[in-house]
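Each letter names a residue; the fold follows as tokens. Both lines appear below:
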Amino acid sequence: MKHVEVLAQIEGATVAAAYERISDFQRYPEFSEAVRTVTLLETGPDYTLSSWEANFRQGILQWVEEDRFD
């Protein structure tokens, strides 16, 4: 299973505001033409299970992912 960790410094944003925006997957289609849909399947106190559809090459890529936020 792949593991991705992103570290970034964002000027003018609080940690809470950045966390809220990054973890709001359902809004990703508003910010990227590649992301077609994001559907939340399950949420818990420290995780989210979501289904994604994105434009990829000449078709549509679909996957389900579990994200854990720290």
Summary: The two ends are 18 Å apart (CA to CA).
